[in-house]
Amino acid sequence: MSDNATNASNFIKTIVIDDLKSGKHDSIVTRFPPEPNGYLHIGHAKSIVLNFGLADEFNGKTNLRFDDTNPLKEDQEYVDAIKEDVKWLGYDWDNLFFASDYFDFMYEKAILLIKKGLAYVDDLSAEEIREYRGTLTEPGKESPFRNRTVEENLELFEQMKDGKFGNGEKVLRAKIDMSSPNINLRDPVIYRIAHATHHNTGDKWCIYPMYAFAHPLEDALEGVTHSICTLEFEDQRPLYDWVIESCETEAKPHQYEFGRLNLTDTVMSKRKLKQLVDEEVVDGWDDPRMPTISGLRRRGFTPESIRNFCREIGVAKTSGIVDVQMLEHFVREDLKLKAPRTMGIVKPLKVVITNYPEGQVEMLDAEINPENEEMGMRQIPFSREIYIEQEDFMENPPKKYFRLFPGNEVRLKHAYFIKCEEVIKDENGNVVELHCTYDPKTKSGSGFNERKVKGTLHWVEATQAVPAEFRLFNPLLQEDDEESTEEKTFMDQVNPNSLEIHEGFVEANMKDVKGGDKFQFFRHGYFNVDPKLTTAEKPVFNLIVSLKSSFKI
Ligand code: ATP
Ligand code: MG
Could you give the CA distance from residue 13 to residue 256 in angstroms, rounded to a whole number? Predict the structure, then answer.
């Protein structure tokens, strides 16, 4: 799929080109390695587009590998959702792997390390291990258990595996260097005890490898050539290399780091997203306000727009923060020619056209998409009663207000000029209806040019209008959460007004819209038919993005 190639050049691509040219590799293998402890978000899309894109471009392979070495947080629901999301983004993995299928291999490698005198069983508690580790300025201290004999270590490790100890009672540590300037090399824990049922291996294991030990072995076993991860792992690269070296794996994968994606106004940590789901701040992982792939899908973002966005932001060795408006720009671009144009009234105000014959309905012609003539024409009814937007009327307008006010004339898109003659109010003084007159000579397309009006309003014919719900979204967080470390502060930042629901109307011909259909509502923006909430009686439209933005690419 050449569309999926990473078209811009970047430093990782340069490395791949060099490695192929020098003969270091005949072909490349990349992997996308999510931990199935949550749903994928837009940050993961960056990694997906990079990994799959590189393999596509250089005729290599990409594995989807579930990095499922922590039984406490992982779940089959997440495995299924991740597969669906990767496919929806337009990618097909060459192999589907589970790190948990390699537990035997990892166990053998741990034994090899023990035999080589490169790993030992430690009885220190997690707390003590932390204390002994030292700091950036002070070297660490060796554990009193560091010099156990190979035989003793082999026996204890076997007992760990056989369930003879409780959680946290013992760990297996790599024996590297307690005074290394790189703290990651101060005898990192490589195996821990966790009496927990694993989603894939059930109760077979009660010891589990740590990420830093497991990940290089997974890469090696799969023949991954370029193991691409985010910048936080840069300091772990020496440990990655140590594991590959010490475990004597056949393949010698190499780790490369790139800057992770951060977006303005957007939470991007699975832990926090999970909290929003668990505490029911949102309606599930696929809530349209969520930056998850499934949330973006339900909101109406297209795979093309996400892929194009990920390519445009590029791949660098620094983590920057990208304006969320850039993502919005790409969905607008993608939908501009694809989405039919239509009219919808979010906050309706009834208008009676008093000089229009009672009982008459005429059909007016309108382009489906003036920017894409191939989409053809649609017909929309017009009659004596219509709805307009409440915001398009003001009883006492300021200067330069060109919409409807008493005595003023405006154009109705695709129809006629109407003039506001009378304002009807309820007993509380609220405007509930307008009485207008229309001028039959002004019909759209008739070439009428005797007088001009400044405002053009959208409208929907009232008797055939389809009741519809409109959902508009504001950021989930009131301000950037990057600074907050405490759970409480994070939940405090939740925006109580992130969802606005309005009951309005759409054109008569939209009765049968289906979940996932996308439209551009004149003057409002792009909307997606919500696949979960839409019923036969009432479509629900999610605002994907408004029409205009100050964003310049
Ligand atoms: P989170 O911190 O959101 O939980 P994670 O890194 O723990 O994310 P993983 O499931 O381990 O999530 O990630 C799978 C892959 O996606 C990793 O290679 C990781 O580097 C990459 N990734 C995750 N978040 C981002 C991001 N914001 N930008 C780019 N890549 C990301
Ligand atoms: Mg992770």
Answer: 11
